Amino acid sequence: MGFEQHVPAADQAAFPLRRADADGIATITLDHAPSRNALSDAMIAALSDTLDSIAEDRGIRVVILTAEGPAFCAGHHLKEMTARRADPDGGAAYFADLMQRCSALMQKIVALPQPVIASVEGVATAAGCQLVASCDLAVAGAKARFATPGVNIGLFCSTPMVALSRNLANKHAMEMLLLGELADAETAHRFGLVNRVAPEGEALAQARAMATTIASKSGHTLAIGKRAFYAQREMGLEEAYDYAAKVMAENMMARDAEEGIGAFIEKREPRWQGR
User: Disulfide bond among the record's keywords (predicted)?
Assistant: First the structure.
C-alpha cells in the first residue's frame, strides 16, 4: 500500500516535486525540468515542507531523494538570484536569507529521523552536489557527474563546502572546490561522495534495494543510530565513547531491542513495534 502525490502542471512551479510512499519508503522526486531542478525559492520551500511531513510520519522508515530529467539538481537558481540585484540593497538581504534557508534545508536532511538515500542520474552541481553530500547514502548512475563549480563564476561554493568537507578527505574536497571541474561517478565513489555506482538508469533501482533492506529494520533503532552517528562525529574520542555508551545502554531498554535480540536467539523474524 502507498500513495503518490500528484501536482497539477499549473502548480508545479510552486510545488516542484512529487512524493510517493510504499512499504515504509518515501520517494521524493525533484520535478522541475525547466530549471534543471534548481534549488529555487519554491523548491527549497517544497522540499523543506515535505521533509517536515515525513519526519512526523512513523510509517516511513527510509527516504529516497531522486529527480526527473537530465539533471539531479543544478544548484541555486542563478536567474532567480540575479533578478534580486534590482532590490534597493542590491539583493544583499535576499542572498543572506536564501543561504540561511538552504543551509537549514541541508541540516534538516541530517536531522531527519529516517535515513535518506540520494539516487543520482545526470549532473549534481554546486548546491545540488551539497544536497547529495547531505544525504546519508548515495547511489550514482554510471553517467552521473558532480561538481562544485562556483569558483568558475566568481562565487566560491562555501556552503556546499560544509557538506563536502564532512564526507570527503580534505584534499579531495579541496580538489572539487578549487578546480570546479566535473567529477564522474567513479571519481565521486573514490572520493567518498557516493556509496555505489550503478549502470546508467539503474541508480533508483539500487537505491530502492538499499531502502528495502533498511526499511526491514526497526524505525526506532534507525532513528537512534542516525542521531547518534552525527552527534558523536563532532566530539572528541573520549566524549564520543561516553556518549555512544549511554546511547547504547538506553537503546538496550527499548522494546524493539528486546524483541530483536529475542528473535535472534529464537531464530525467527522480529516483530518491530517502533518503540
Answer: no
Residues contacting residue 28 through CB under 8 Å, at least 6 positions apart: 17, 18, 19, 47, 50, 63, 64, 65, 66
What is the dotted CATH code of the domain comprising 2-215?
Answer: 3.90.226.10
Topology classification of domain 219-266:
Lyase 2-enoyl-coa Hydratase; Chain  A, domain 2 (1.10.12)
- Cα–Cα distance between 264 and 270 in angstroms, integer? 8
The model carries a pTM of 0.93
209 and 196 in contact (C-beta within 8 Å)?
no
Under DSSP, the state recorded for 274 is -
Between CA 64 and CA 75 the distance in angstroms is 19
